Amino acid sequence: MNNKKLVFSGVQPTGNLHLGNYLGALKNFVSLQKEMDCIYCVVDLHALTVFQKPNDLQNNVLETVASFVATGLDPNKSIIFNQSAVSGHAELAWIFNCVSRVGWLNRMTQFKDKAGSDKEKASVGLYIYPNLMAADILLYKATHVPVGADQKQHLELSRDIAQKFNNDFNCKNFFPLPEPLISKNISRVMSLRDATKKMSKSEESDYSRINLKDSADEINKKIKKAKSDSSSIPDNLKNLEKKPEAYNLINIYSEISKKNLDKVLKEMSGKEYSFLKNKLAEILIDEIIPVGKEIKKLLSDKPYLVQILKKGTEKANIIAEENLKNIREKVGLI
Ligand code: TYM
Q1: Could you tell me which of 158, 232, 258, 304 has the fewest CB atoms within 10 Å of its CB?
Q2: Ligand 1 binding pocket includes 227 (Cβ within 6 Å)
């Protein structure tokens, strides 16, 4: 078996990336780039599981590349490309559709959330989406996958598929069992309006999230309006955990200021939430505004972004084709 460590992760091009994507995924992508070979994919085929206007999809793919680069990914170090440009993803996904079990997919909570109450109307693609995600990772035999906590269950399914393939085709260790890399401190950034839900592109109210392209004024307003609490900030974690909205804000503050939660609570305990909100808006503006500016600058040079994808696709395709050749052989395809 090849023991080489390889990182793979993907982001859907479905519009504005937000603070959840940034803290839960993108920042880790950037730090991993320093230690390991990394492949970062704009998963446009995944986006198709819910209808996208073709022009919007094209723009969103480029905006996602711009966001990757603006947060610090270096296209000369990491492979950056779009999923649909490497046809091996779709081919391996089909093979995995035949390895994966209906019972496994029926357990996926994200399908239940996204399909809502009328599952009959959800696309078949949305249902089998986790098999495509397994194909994304295993097409490159990736060993490490940085993601937010919401993707953990899909990662477990990828491991099950890898294991079943290795057993079915009698090829022990052919596919590695990919490890999720989930940030310990902030694996799930919650909505600013309802801390029982994760911050998400699909929540209706824009006040629920901080987008990477928000202006300083918007960040200020959103943080001021964020749900919190009428009492003062507690002095210990146990009491803080009973207030999910406040916990979310303090957690974001802790992550961005790089101070641990105990230290933040010492600094803030007994104070009003307006004190925390002022401080949080300040550090968020310092962190996010330069990223947003860079995204907008990069978006004004679309040929450069297309070139990044083209180069990345060439590199990804070489690895994918080599692995696919072996996969086809194992399965018995001529
Ligand atoms: P997507 O596009 O929804 O999100 C991209 C990344 O951002 C993380 N994330 C969050 N982290 C913390 N708090 C939040 N509120 C939050 N919202 C999003 C996600 O966990 C993810 O890491 N299925 C994936 C894309 C994908 C993929 C893959 C990922 C397709 N193939 C292969 C890894 C490996 C998705 O829809 O992510």
Answers
A1: 258
A2: no
Q: What is the DSSP letter of 176?
A: -
Q: Is the CB of 138 under 6 A from ligand 1?
A: no
| Cα 147 to Cα 25: distance, rounded to the nearest angstrom | 5
Q: Is residue 118 predicted with pLDDT exceeding 90?
A: no
In order of 128, 285, 305, the CA distances from 25 in angstroms are: 23, 19, 21
- What is the tens place of the pLDDT at every residue in 15-42? 889 999 999 999 999 999 999 999 999 9
Judgement on whether residues 111 and 231 belong to the same structural domain of the protein = no
CA 12, CA 78: separation in Å to the nearest integer?
A: 18
Distance CA 315, CA 313 (A): 5
Q: Does 293 participate in catalysis according to the annotation?
A: no
* Whole-angstrom distance, CA of residue 147 vs CA of residue 207: 24
pLDDT at 326: 98
pLDDT of residue 214: 98
Could you tell me the two tokens for 92?
């391996």
Task: Note down the domain range covering 29.
Answer: 6-187+301-331
For residues 318 and 290, state if they share a domain: no
pLDDT at position 184 is 87
- Residue that has been written with the tokens 């097409």 in this structure: 139
Q: Is 45 in the pocket of ligand 1 (CB under 6 A)?
A: no
Q: Where are the alpha helices (DSSP H) in the chain?
A: 19-21, 27-33, 44-47, 54-70, 88-97, 102-106, 109-115, 124-138, 152-168, 216-225, 237-241, 244-257, 261-268, 273-299, 302-331
Quick one: tokens of 47? 């986006």
